Amino acid sequence: MRLLLVAAVLLTGLVAPVSRAQAAQTRHDAIINGVRLTYWTSRPIAPTDVPVVFLHGGPGYNSYSFRMTAGKALEARYPMVYLDERGSGESERPWRGDYALATQVEDIEGLRRQLGVKRMVLAGHSFGGTLAVEYAQTHPQRVARLILIDAAVDLPGALESWMHTLASQFPAAYAAAERSDAGKALRAVAPGDTCALAHARLAFVGAGMATLPDGHAFHDRQQFHVMAAKQEQERLDAQSGLRNTGEIGAALMAPESNFICYSVRHPERLDMPTLVLVGAHDGAVGVAPQRALAARLPHATLVVLPGSAHFTYQEEPDAFLKAVNGFMQGH
């Protein structure tokens, strides 16, 4: 199952993709927190720099499509770093299968030490937003600014958006789910039990998707405002030669992890300037959870882009860059 597909999608008029031969980024491989992590830098990082570190989503995707498109535009202003998270892209799959959020947070801290900088700007997309938030809560003194791009900050809330997508776009599948055992289980959840509600919503959507000829159609409606974007995404993925193995998603969705119940636990620790950016049509993480989080943060700027779904930085690149640059300049 694709929990939160995080991949860059290009449309007509977007930042032009750059081939590997043209790319100026430098690849680095380093043993960090017990695994070989691969990352790229746009230029040599000095100890006095405050680089923008991009964390991709998936979980289990890679940084390639972002750094070949939106990242190239950001490099003109900021020192950029792109991490392929453990088990993702060109980084190593840990033989112990350790994909715990706390472990991945320490991967990011290890990367900071490897870069030799005191502070970073963390920019996380979807699941990368989860990691950015978790790192910022754990090491707030190391985060100069936080950029959350269509971030997975409230999975029970996101699953409510999934149910809305099913009801509005696939009403027959929704009706079938209501009649199923999953529908009965959802109606039986005790009020206020957010974790049980998340599990029940996931099972409900799964029951509805099982009636569809192509389950990918459901996720496509969540993630793409303009469906033609899929073709460019597939081209970029083919160009990268990389695939999501599903290993991380399976680990995070295992019963013992309870990741499906995730929400931001300590918003009071996120006192750094924070940009919360989301597409108005994002059905993957939902707009309401982004608004709710921004309202709880002392120094948050909320930007909702009207013509985007889950890929704001690709579907509305000019507006995306304007929002990011304005935030970075303190506007």
Q: Give the domain tally.
A: 2
Number of helices: 14
Shape by Cα distribution: globular
Approximate strand percentage? 5-15%
> What is the structural class?
alpha/beta
CATH superfamily of the largest domain: Alpha/Beta hydrolase fold, catalytic domain
CATH class identity of the largest domain: Alpha Beta
Give the helices and strands as they follow along the chain. EEEHHEHEHEHHHHHHHEHEHH
Average pLDDT for all residues:
90
Topology readout:
Layout: E1 26-32, E2 35-41, E3 52-55, H1 64-68, H2 70-74, E4 80-84, H3 101-115, E5 120-125, H4 127-138, E6 143-149, H5 155-169, H6 171-179, H7 181-187, H8 194-209, H9 216-223, H10 229-240, H11 247-252, E7 274-279, H12 287-296, E8 300-305, H13 312-315, H14 317-328
Parallel strand pairs: 3-4, 3-5, 5-6, 6-7, 7-8
Antiparallel strand pairs: 1-2, 2-4
Helix pairs in contact: 3-4, 5-6, 5-8, 6-8, 7-8
Family: Belongs to the peptidase S33 family.
Keywords: Hydrolase, Signal
Domain AB hydrolase-1: 51-317
